[in-house]
Design a protein that fits this description.
Largest sheet: 7 strands, mixed
Helix content: 10-25%
Distance between the termini: 43 Å
Number of helices: 4
Strand content: 25-35%
Shape: globular
Radius of gyration: 19 Å
Structural class: alpha/beta
């Protein structure tokens, strides 16, 4: 099964749906020669530490994620790409759990506002349609991985991530600096206000009231370039 990655696996931490310990899932994936394995227990990261350790021991690319449940019962799978995604996933899980009750989390699409960075979303059927209409134009429908359109651009390793980001009219976009050196956002055509000096962990936000393409760059490191695509 070389080249195949399982992106939606439950362990026995997902009661009545999964039966294997996280370590057993890793062993099975390694034995089958999977390219990677994602642990996506429902509405929590219960086995994430054990899973990550086992995957590292077996040199298997392990992906942390969770299957998130909305108030009407629809589910989507959120996979973590980086530390920002892990932080956002933790927040989303907490919001759903706090709004609902034990065994009955109630996530809302609005919870993804400014919490989509660093996550890849998998969805199908009505859940994909809702997410496509209300959250992002890039949702993996039917299981094909694509990034959840996010309202945040991270500055990491002297690059804007994502380099091209799509938002809707009336949305606010935030740039967050994760480099150890400062950066400064500047519009290439002066169509939006540039940022002050952004030190490490500093953030800057801009609202977009009209559609169009808005190229920009870092005035301190001009090789760094990006684009905001604003749609109605």
């Amino acid at each position: 099964m070389r080249g195949y990655a399982e992106l939606h696996a439950h362990s026995n931490f997902t009661f009545l749906e999964g039966s294997s310990h996280p370590e057993e899932l890793v062993e099975a994936a390694a034995a089958l020669g999977l390219a990677a394995l994602a642990l996506t227990d429902r509405d929590g990261l219960y086995g994430a530490v054990r899973f990550s350790k086992a995957a590292a021991d077996r040199k298997l690319p392990g992906i942390i994620g969770s299957e998130l449940t909305f108030g009407d019962g629809d589910r989507i799978v959120a996979l973590v790409e980086n530390t920002l995604g892990y932080a956002n996933l933790c927040e989303l899980i907490s919001l759903g759990q706090l709004r609902g009750s034990k065994g009955d989390p109630r996530l809302q699409l609005e919870d993804f506002d400014n919490r989509g960075g660093g996550l890849v979303i998998l969805a199908a059927g009505e859940a994909a349609a809702r997410a496509h209409a209300s959250v992002a134009p890039q949702v993996a429908a039917g299981g094909a991985a694509a990034g959840l359109a996010m309202n945040e651009v991270t500055i990491d390793n002297f690059a804007f991530n994502p380099k091209i980001v799509s938002v809707t009219v009336g949305s606010k976009l935030t740039w967050r600096n994760r480099d150890d050196v400062p950066h400064k956002i500047k519009s290439a055509d002066n169509r939006f206000a540039g940022s002050p000096l952004l030190d490490t962990k500093a953030a800057y936000s801009v609202g977009f009231s009209e559609s169009g393409e808005f190229p920009y760059f870092c005035s301190l490191h001009p090789v760094m370039q990006g684009k905001v695509v604003v749609t109605r």
